[in-house]
UniProtKB/TrEMBL annotation:
Transmembrane spans: 121-142, 154-172, 178-206, 213-230, 236-257, 299-316, 322-340, 347-365
Protein name per UniProt: Glycosyltransferase RgtA/B/C/D-like domain-containing protein
Statement: the UniProt record of this protein carries the keyword Transmembrane: yes
Keyword set includes Transmembrane: yes
Keywords: Membrane, Transmembrane, Transmembrane helix
Length: 378
């Protein structure tokens, strides 16, 4: 069996290498890239915002296909805010705090840049490398869940990594793929029942990479706190302390990097993209928010269908309270994220959370058919 698993693993590695190369060949230079490069160059030239803007767009123009570059600067198709960002230093500089708070992501880009990789490619390589390692982690998780199914594990891993949304996220300059291996590591720790300290350190890393995942990390601590209290009737102060530390980390990041705040982000994303943020206050009320939420929810049906399907299978296949509680935790986080950022047209924002719920469904199925017990994992 060990030989069969090794052959299966080697085949998956080979296919992942080929898929990663294919994603590199089809890489996309989209409108997020100037923001992350602006953050990178600001650390080099903190007192030269004009130079930062110019170098950012010049470096992208050198590498990007012309059609992608024209889209990025807002000339084809026509996009006024993007034209402002490319030509107006104030407009460009005021956008950077939206990107700068992804601290861990920026650090990884900076590391590759300092190693000699060009700045645009540094952003893209983070996604490509994360894609490859995500494939390895998916294989490892499925191997844990289905220790006798080496053929199924290999085929399912490749199928998942070939999923169009997965390959798309691997090709774009955005942090969704970078956070993915850490979330997969999180679910490994959850299944293997890693120590409280190890899980806390992982939560810190996730929050450091993506501060907007603070809702995920804090809600996990609330969930585990309530679950352990229900099972053991014991209040673990450590979970409260951990939550406080993560909250302080989140507040520190958004204050240090002058994050404009949720209201500005929501206004620019769903009401009106302001070319110059400081030129217009983000005025909208509760009725505007509810109206946008309602209309976005209508186009959220693919995510809703998948989430409901996965949670239904979990409750059908598993009577284990632990499995049900943490499946509900992942399910709830999909909609917590939607409430804060209802970008239903961009499924990539919700895909990592939906995938964690999918893995809980796979765990529930493995419990049912393989007599798989959490307590037997070591």
């Amino acid at each position: 069996m060990k030989i069969k698993w090794r052959i299966s693993f080697l085949l998956v590695v080979l296919i992942l290498v080929l898929l990663t190369v294919r994603n590199y060949q089809n890489r996309v230079y989209d409108w997020d890239m100037p923001g992350y490069l602006g953050c990178l160059y600001t650390s080099e030239f903190p007192d030269s915002p004009d130079k930062v803007r110019q170098i950012t767009y010049i470096s992208i123009q050198k590498e990007a296909p012309d059609d992608q570059y024209q889209d990025l600067i807002g000339t084809a198709p026509f996009n006024i805010p993007r034209q402002y960002f490319a030509k107006n230093t104030q407009a460009f500089t005021e956008q950077l705090p939206y990107f700068r708070i992804k601290v861990g992501y920026i650090c990884m880009i900076s590391l590759l840049y300092k190693l000699g990789v060009t700045s645009p490619l540094s952003v893209l390589l983070v996604s490509l490398i994360s894609y490859f390692f995500s494939g390895l982690l998916v294989f490892y998780i499925l191997k844990i869940l289905y220790p006798e199914k080496y053929i199924m594990t290999a085929f399912l891993t490749v199928g998942i990594m070939l999923f169009p949304l997965m390959t798309y996220i691997a090709r774009i300059p955005a942090p969704e793929m970078f956070i993915f291996p850490f979330l997969l590591t999180f679910i490994i720790g959850l299944i293997r029942k890693w120590s409280t300290l190890t899980m806390f350190l992982l939560l810190l890393v996730i929050t450091f990479i993506r501060p907007d995942y603070a809702t995920f990390t804090l809600s996990y601590l609330v969930t585990i706190f309530l679950f352990t209290y229900y099972k053991e009737e014991t209040v673990y102060i450590s979970f409260i302390v951990q939550g406080a530390v993560i909250f302080i980390l989140y507040i520190s990041i958004i204050n240090f990097y002058d994050y404009p705040g949720w209201k500005n982000l929501f206004f620019d994303s769903f009401i009106k993209r302001r070319p110059i943020i400081s030129a217009e206050p983000p005025e909208f009320g509760i009725s505007d928010y509810v109206s946008i939420l309602y209309h976005k929810a209508i186009y959220f049906k693919k995510i809703t269908f998948a989430a409901l399907l996965f949670i239904a299978v979990v409750f059908w296949k598993s009577k284990d309270l632990w499995v049900r509680v943490f499946s509900v935790f992942f399910f709830a986080n999909v909609y917590i994220k939607f409430l804060f950022f209802p970008q239903s047209a961009e499924i990539r924002f919700f895909f990592p959370l939906i995938f964690l719920l999918f893995l809980m469904m796979m765990y529930a199925i493995s419990q049912k058919h393989n007599n798989f017990k959490l307590t037997n994992i070591s």
